[in-house]
Amino acid sequence: MQAKSNQWNNNLAFLLAATGSAVGLGNIWGFPYKAGENGGGLFVLLYMFFVVVLGLPVFMAEVFIGKKGKANPVSAVENLAKSSNSSRSWNLVGYSGILASLLIAGYYAVIAGLVINYGFISLAGFGELDPAVVYATEVSSFWEMTFWFSLFLVGSGIVVGFGIDKGIESAMRILLPMLFVLVLLLVGYGAIKGDMPSALNYLFSWKADQFNAGTIQAAVGQAFFSLSIGMGTLMAFGSYMPKNQTVSKASVIVVTADTGVALFAGLAIFPLVFFFALDPTAGTELVFKTMTTAFAEMGTLGQFIGPLFYFLLAVAAFSSMISILEPSVVFVSEKFSVSRFKAAFIIVVVCFLLSLVSVAGFNVWKDVTIGALDNPFEAMKYLADDFLFFWWEQEYHFL
Asked: Looking at residue 24, what DSSP letter applies?
């Protein structure tokens, strides 16, 4: 039986789902490390500028397309193209978004699995352990990494399989409040025990000589990725939007919440980084090496703050992964007239295979270079970014 078009139970449900999609590892893991790599305050300023000038309008446009099209991303674009007498080939925009979401899921699940693994490790405390050795040990095991990302992926697939009401909406009602409380707790701890003045100075001051093309590109990419633009998610969620809900008002609320969480994530992490005289430019390994050093320095208290931090990351990752899977699942369900659980199973298997490639990039294929890229994991990220940029460019012309 073909999947019927569902609808959120109320206006709050869309806000929770869209915010859950936007607020993820991109905010709590990605934003701080990219800020660290790109000059701190200048990156933050550019990020906020592009969120308002580019991110918000495109966010509203994607939600509007979904609301008007009332279908999966591919069909929604087709419906709008047909109604405006445009070429049906615009459905390539929908297909590229779905493909991008699958590629993102392929490496996102691996990072999320590593986060869960670190959560359990932190329960025992890092003590005298060398963070670099711990990280190298954990990523060297192909099967251990596969176990953790599989656990995460299956859990996400089950929630999506239950559908809009019993699955996504119910999950977001629990996850989002939990996420906001955890963020505030960690910011409060950073303000009391960390070096908050240095963190504020780092995040909100900048020098003109830091301005360059690389920082601009990083800020634009972070703004779009953080808002889930180009993945088909917003179109899918927009298609379930109640008729009486205003796209512009809902979009402003979600974008504001997403940006706020990103800034708070920086205020949770950098006070500890500066207090313990650690490196704020550690890059992608900031939460796995730098932060574990901070937790070890805390002693017994680190056995509480550490798990709390990684639990926050896991919650953020789970809320986003549910949203990343949704466009592909609803497309398969509607296109091939299968149940959501069957569609979710198919998509989870595809993501599992892609994730295996990503995991291999950390260990068995870590020395395999693909062009100028270090390993298959980096290649997966690069390919996903390419499809996202294709989506953004084509969507701009479509609108």
From this structure: S
